[in-house]
Write a structure and sequence with these properties.
This protein has two domains: 219 residues, Glutaconate Coenzyme A-transferase (3-Layer(aba) Sandwich), CATH 3.40.1080.10; 33 residues, no CATH class. The chain is built from ten helices and 13 strands. The protein is globular, with a radius of gyration of 19 Å. The relative contact order is 0.19.
């Protein structure tokens, strides 16, 4: 926990934060489906014309879809990918896979979590249950090993996966980079422990005293975080508990097939209506 006396501010602009991610980087994106994803950051990557990205997320939707729509993705490591029940599958992601425009490593959500957990623990692989009878291990070249303790059973093991970056969206941060999630953390904790570098977009800065008073609410401590951008409504058009819900009309507009839709969607985003991006 930062004590507020010897830790420099880690606040940068959204533009500066996205500029830290180079072409070809592997990026784990926090949140789940349309909930508390770092969507303003994703849109800024598109504005900066990033290409060749490898996206890691157990349950992506809008974020991976819009990156595929913009031609920014080379590979995806995913579990389920969808725009949630209101809108069905993620169409531009699906087309990118079907047309072989991106490479896909298909996972169960738990197998991808296990790959990240292995990296977080500093071990080369992690046992994972529930894969017997599935085609996923064969598709990915995963190994099955006998129980070294002699039960006669075997277990699938998945290799460690350490993304270059984990990018999270949070309701609150301290100026020094402590991260507080209100509500479910989704996959953010394990992503932050597995990645080489952690970047955060936050709705607001909370007083340092509140982090001292409630250290148990800090999901990611400041010493793990490289930089933070403060961007209100940074999870739009998704939700960020407890501040705002999903903007369903905006998601419906994004789903339009018209050629002009992507640019119009980018131009109406909240980060262009304030100064946080710059």
């Amino acid at each position: 926990m930062a004590d507020g006396t010897d830790t420099a501010s880690k606040i940068v602009s959204l533009r500066e934060l996205a500029a830290l991610v180079p072409d070809g980087a592997s990026v784990a994106l926090g949140g789940s489906f349309l909930h508390r994803g770092p969507f303003a950051f994703v849109r800024e990557l598109i504005r900066q014309r990033r290409i060749g990205l490898e996206i890691v997320k157990q349950s992506p939707g809008y974020d991976l879809d819009v990156l595929c729509r913009a031609g920014a993705v080379a590979k995806a490591y995913t579990g389920i990918v969808a725009m949630e029940g209101n809108f069905g599958l993620a169409p531009w992601y699906r087309r990118a896979v079907e047309r072989k425009e991106i490479e896909l490593e298909e996972n169960a959500c738990y197998s991808l979590t296990s790959r990240l957990r292995a990296a977080a623990y500093g071990v080369p692989f992690q046992p994972v249950a529930g894969l017997h009878g599935s085609d996923i291990p064969a598709l990915n070249g995963w190994k099955e090993i006998p129980d070294p303790y002699g039960s006669g059973r075997s277990v699938w093991v998945v290799p460690a996966l350490s993304p270059d970056f984990a990018v999270l969206h949070a309701p609150e941060v301290s100026e020094h980079g402590d991260v507080r999630i209100l509500g479910t953390p989704h996959w953010d904790r394990i992503m932050s422990r597995a990645a080489k570098r952690v970047l955060v977009v936050a709705e607001r800065i909370a007083p340092m005293e509140s982090f001292r008073e409630h250290p148990e609410k800090t999901l990611v401590p400041h010493f793990m975080v490289e930089a933070v951008a403060v961007q209100p409504q940074g999870a739009w058009p998704g939700s960020c508990h407890p501040d705002y819900a999903i903007d369903y009309p905006a998601v419906e507009h994004y789903m339009s097939e018209a050629e002009s839709t992507l640019q119009a969607h980018l131009e109406r985003a909240p980060e262009l209506r304030g100064s946080s991006r710059d």
